[in-house]
Design goal:
Layout (H helix, E strand, L loop, with lengths): L2 H11 L11 E3 L3 H12 L2 E5 L11 E5 L2 E6 L17 E4 L3 H11 L2 E8 L4 E7 L5 E7 L4
Parallel strand pairs: 1-4, 5-8
Antiparallel strand pairs: 2-3, 3-4, 6-7, 7-8
Helix pairs in contact: 2-3
Length: about 140
């Protein structure tokens, strides 16, 4: 068994801790593809994945991003969980080096919705939309000069 296969098998058997007070659980079209995007865009670490079914769907992927958990699954309309357009929420990434995080996400394919700018509360803030329709916001203190 290769190192990758061993790691994936271990992740499937383990129950990694859910990090953070509230854990977003996204249903996206193409959870495996989304997980790969989040690895490139947000340095996500995959800690668990259920195998894909005969239709290429997975019911669970667990990622760690920026000290918190994000969980993903594909939609399962036959079980009452159809794919729906994400709306009325954003995922906030409070980061220290916002320029590096922003550039990495944009280079990976995130669309700029609101450019980075200093906001009325005094921090730098901006919003991106990922290829799966999820809105991501980034926030960082303005660096003192």
């Amino acid at each position: 068994m290769s190192n990758t296969a061993t790691t994936e098998a271990s992740a499937q058997q383990a129950h990694p801790a859910a990090l953070g007070g509230v854990v977003p659980y996204l249903s996206v079209g193409g959870a495996v593809t989304a997980a790969e995007f989040y690895k490139r865009a947000f340095e996500a670490e995959e800690v668990a994945r259920h195998p894909v079914d005969d239709q290429g769907r997975t019911m669970h992927i667990h990622l760690y991003i920026n000290g918190g958990s994000l969980m993903l699954s594909d939609p399962y309309p036959e079980h009452g969980h159809p794919l729906q357009t994400p709306q009325a929420f954003s995922l906030l990434l409070p980061v220290k080096d916002i320029d590096a995080w922003w550039k990495r996400a944009v280079d990976a394919g995130a669309e700029v919705v609101m450019p980075l700018q200093v906001m009325f509360w005094g921090d730098r803030y901006g919003q991106l939309r990922d290829p799966f329709g999820v809105l991501w916001a980034m926030n960082a203190p303005v660096k003192a000069s």
